[in-house]
Amino acid sequence: MGFELMQPQTIDVSDLPAGRRLGAWTDALNEHWYALDLTNPTNGFENARFGFFDIPGIRFGAIDSDPMNVFRRKEHLSDSGGDFYFLPIPLRDSIALRQAGRETELQAGDLTVIATADTYQYQQATANSLITLRVDGPTMRDRIPMIDDLVAQSCDGRAPLVRVFVDFAHSLIRQRDELDPESAGAMAPHLLDLLALALTAPVDARKSNESSVRLAHLRRIMRAIENRLDDEALGPGTLAAELGLSERYIQKMFAERGETLSGVIRARRIATAQRRLLDPTRRGLSIASIAFSVGFSDPAHFSRAFRNVTGLSPSEYRSDRQMEA
């Protein structure tokens, strides 16, 4: 079954009686976002407006609201359908976030990732406007395997790749009334590609503790993998030579995460092949061409590896998904 484009919706509680606004705002976010609690840190809560729409795997939101404190508590984690990654982008003022033992403050234009599978809280101390994205958990982990390492890590909005992602997300919100299902479906993978680039940009040089250094190395490794997926020789030796790290160190970093480098490379190749098989601009490419483009020198080996992951051959996967669309 193909993706059905949801008509953009808007919720505005500003016209409700004063005593009902915060409760109605909490109920709206619970219904259309995921389970959470809200409190108001000031004496009154007057204005709150939330517009949202979907593209495949991603819900966009544009929020304007008075100050609020947001809590995702343990009792919320059993909520069905709560496996998401939430990306808040403040536009007017800062917000403060606490999750996974990390605390960060986002300035206007900065970007971070919140995992809704864990508790968190953030404070919006002033009236603010935010772009927000809610990405399905499996979709995000498939595209960015290291995503859980990036939770509550601030990405500087002044960085070029972060600005490009935010501008693209903002442009989609502005054009939401013009999107058709085919266009929306085509936009989703490109948005996630931009997000992956933004989140794997170099760590702020002002951070020098060991965990930040390791995260910086992991980001460099993941970016090098993405950039060289078409290289069939890609492996610990080529990455070590390119990045100036030892092979043992690279292998150890993945082993500590319960992964292997070869497994991560294979997963990225298959996931990229899946996107390319469904890309309308690549419909004329043969299965062999797709295989070569993601680093498989033998199309038969590619087909076996692809079937092991998806349960379908590349040609079956392409034809089935096109029929669904």
What brief labels describe this structure?
globular, Jelly Rolls, 325 residues, 5-stranded antiparallel sheet, Arc Repressor Mutant, subunit A, 2 domains, alpha+beta, 6-stranded antiparallel sheet
Annotate the secondary structure layout.
Layout: E1 9-12, H1 18-32, E2 37-39, E3 48-55, E4 58-65, E5 68-72, E6 84-90, E7 95-99, E8 102-106, E9 114-115, E10 120-124, E11 128-136, H2 137-143, H3 160-174, H4 181-199, H5 210-227, H6 236-243, H7 247-255, H8 261-278, H9 287-293, H10 299-310, H11 314-324
Flag low-confidence runs: 205-210
Number of separate helices = 11
Name the shape in a single word: globular
- CATH-wise, what's the superfamily of the largest domain? Jelly Rolls
CATH architecture of the largest domain: Sandwich
What is the residue-averaged pLDDT?
87
What summary fits the major beta sheet?
Answer: 6 strands, antiparallel
CATH topology of the largest domain: Jelly Rolls
Strand order of the largest sheet: 1-3-4-11-6-9
The overall strand count is: 11
Helical/strand content category: alpha+beta
